[in-house]
Fold this protein.
Amino acid sequence: MIKHILLLAAVLFSGLVLGQEDELKKNAQKLTPGKTDTIQGWKKGGSSSLTFSQVSLTNWAAGGQNSIAFNGALNVYVNYKKGHNTWDNNLDLGFGLVRQGLADVRKSDDRIDFSSKFGKQAFGKQNLYYATLFNFRSQFAPGYNYPNDSVVISRFLAPGYFTLALGLDYKPVKNMAIFVAPLTGRITVVNDQLLADNGAFGVEKATYDTAGVKITNGKRTFSEFGGYLKFTYKFDIGKSTTYSTRLDIFSNYLRNPQNLDIMWDNNLVIKVSKYIGVTFSALMIYDDDTNIAVDTNSDGVVDGEGPRLQFRQIFGVGFSYKF
């Protein structure tokens, strides 16, 4: 886990360095004639946060446990606009660790999300573009179904989601985009044979004979073809608060198109001072191909599994920097 902390710290530091270069880049930007709010050329920026909490108890009559927690996040965008062409790139990274009492260190957040979207003006409209989008999502470190920490249920590229979409991108106002793609291909990669054999994340599971001997390995990839919608919006609430939201919806034409895969990410950042901020994020995911074990009787016994609404919420106060 330590190497992942160092990796994220290095990425956060590099983000701060990029922020110092923004002023130098501004001189290279030009305004479109007659459109004073439309910047031509490169536009770069982002935000980073690092939160840490610690609780230590000694002879504490009220009870409780010692704990230590760390969360780091980085969001970077690099956008380009010239003439009728646009190119938007966004990288979202997050990693968190928590230790409570004498338990081992556990992962509390882990995400890699990269998107690149290229557009060309359509129908002579300044806010409508023919567009193609590429998206990649995965994680850094192995994940476990705690309290069971002996069986890996996910790892880097298990799963890994690769999406390529063709459609129209509508940008009605600044920092808002609605991308609709009726032609979308998505490949789910499960780069772990044991997980693939179990049919994790929708791949075809392994087959066995009557004696329990494996006949064929589980497939490590799962391909889908369908329609995709992506909505993004970011705006400032006053001078110190920024809210951003992203909604992804995918329908697989080839299997159960009525069962939509949904990801809705919301982030709120409140600046207390130049380097101190309050961050709140809430992520909801529903994937029809991801089965989650459920203990309905709370007795430690798995009573069934199936697709479920996944929810992750993070609240932190600590270092925050916007560049």
Remarks:
- The two ends are 28 Å apart (CA to CA).
- The helical segments are 2-26, 193-197.
- Residues 41 and 240 are 27 Å apart (CA to CA).
- Confidence is low (pLDDT under 50) at residues 1-37.
